[in-house]
Amino acid sequence: MAKTRKSISRKPVTRQKSKKSSLVISSKNIFLIVLGLFFCFAVYRYREALLYYFSFKTNKTIKVDKVTQARIVQVLSNHEGKTFGFDVSEYQGDIDWETVDSIEGFKLDFVFIRATAGNDNVDNRFKENWRSAKKHGFTRGAYHYYRPDENSLEQAQKFIKTVSLSKGDFPPVLDIEKLPENQSIERLKIGLKRWLTTVEKHYGVKPIIYSADRYHQDFLKKEFKEYTFWIANYNFWIEEIKDDWQFWQFTEKAVINGISEKVDVNIYNGSPKMLQYQVIN
After folding, report:
1. CB 145 within 8 A of CB 117
2. CA distances in angstroms from 54 to 38, 189, 218, listed in the order given
3. Is 87 a catalytic residue?
4. Is 18 strand, coil or helix?
5. How far is residue 42's CA from residue 23's CA, in Å, rounded to a whole number?
């Protein structure tokens, strides 16, 4: 007798597949919406940089990286109401101070000028830059490039003999960027304190310290916390000045009319009126 086959019942899967596919479609839609919102935010957040990048602005004198210049425009735009300046040395050559006025439409109000380096070097352009900066209405400051393995007191005396400060000038600036090769960090800090103390005693005002952000964090922040800091940080993703940075050097590649080489640009963490509280009275 032939056996009859039992029919095998199968559960319908159409609905289950439909649910899965709808979930996939829904997830894709959410992802696209989030991506679209992020894109809109990015366009709005970096609108000044994007407008600059896609403009037809060029500079025939200095070869300009347009991405870098776009960031400069964005950072300046983020700090409307703050005060802008620059710093120069002999490496910028002969400056046409008559035409130095602004950067990308933002007025320049102050300038730091290298005066000395180590215990034996005077910047070749210091006297001319120092005189011209005041003549053309800039709040000016003089800085000393500190060489860690040279005598700190001799370096202080070199600065003092070179720089005469007047009412309306910034306090003297100590520029420390390098680590010592022939002494310990502790000996370096002793030397820095000797320079700062000697210079403060001579001018009657506490100096400003310039350094890179990482150097400041690792070696200076705790032991020199009573000083005003001018911080260099060129990180592409850093867009806002920090509260404990009195000055921020945010680029070394700016283009300014009247200067034939690229220039460092700085932001003071306050308004032009507040800047007057930072100068010698």
Report:
1. yes
2. 20, 47, 39
3. yes
4. helix
5. 28
Q: Which of 65, 94, 98, 177 is catalytic?
A: 177
Q: pTM of this prediction?
A: 0.80
Q: How far apart are CA 222 and CA 213, in angstroms?
A: 13
Provide the 10 A C-beta neighbour count for residue 189. 15
- Residue 64 carries which side chain, given as an amino acid letter? V
Tens of pLDDT, residue by residue over 62-98, are: 555 788 889 999 999 999 999 999 999 999 999 999 9
| Local structure of 57: helix, strand or coil | coil
Q: What is the largest CA-CA distance in the chain?
A: 123
DSSP state at residue 217? I
| Secondary structure string (H, E, C) spanning 191-212 | HHHHHHHHHHHHHCCCCEEEEE
Q: Are strands 208-212 and 228-232 parallel, antiparallel or unpaired?
A: parallel
For the chain, 281 residues long, the average pLDDT of each consecutive 10-residue run is 50 55 65 56 45 48 73 96 98 98 96 98 98 98 98 98 98 97 96 98 98 97 96 94 97 96 97 95 92
Catalytic residue among 48, 87, 213, 264: 87
